[in-house]
Specification:
mainly alpha; Multidrug-efflux Transporter Regulator, Chain: A, Domain 2; two-stranded antiparallel ribbon; flat; DNA-binding; coiled coil; DNA-bd_dom_put_sf
Amino acid sequence: MATDSKQRPVYVISVAAELVDMHPQTLRLYERKQLIRPGRSSGKTRLYSERDIEHLREIRRLTQELGVNLAGVEEVMRLQHELDDLQGEFEAEIESIEDELRERAAPPALPAPDGRLDPKDRPVYVISIAAELVDMHPQTLRLYERKQLIRPGRSSGKTRLYSERDIEHLREIRRLTQELGVNLAGVEEIMRLRHQLEAARAHLEGNVQRLQQDLAGRMTSWRTLPAPEQDGDTEDAG
């Protein structure tokens, strides 16, 4: 499978800095903070990809337009890198499956998909209990829902019900705001990426499982095909 052209390191630091209107020293700082991950040439020269340029522009947007502090930017970019890595893992998995399909190798045993909801996503806590679990006021939880930082479920009677995953998200929001001093705009960006990452991971894992099941089905079909007839059967001697 061809490598994403956006990941190809092509720009030296002076060109990259000019493209994003930053000083080269700023790019070095962002690399030390692990906000970007430039490649290296054989001579150890930093080389930046189109994806690095996109990330640098996103950092500038967060800091200059939204006023997000560096701690918040670090959280955003960590999640963005996780998304990038997940996509790379998915592509590698697809390539492995394609190789297996070409070689007609015996497929691994696969658990039957049952479509059950992840227990962490089961809505169980009413708002008063959820607020107590995360040491927040219920009104704060309603605010975070309006900002789409969390997405509680609803009972048949339209009562808000929070899952274990919602509780994790609320604790993460508290960490970002109280421990790291990230403003609400930064928290919105971080939680949007968290939701995107979780959805992408579930979607990609589902696609991989479907491909594996398709491979298993193909292998079963090939094994049950009738053997080809042999030419040149031996005749009885006269």
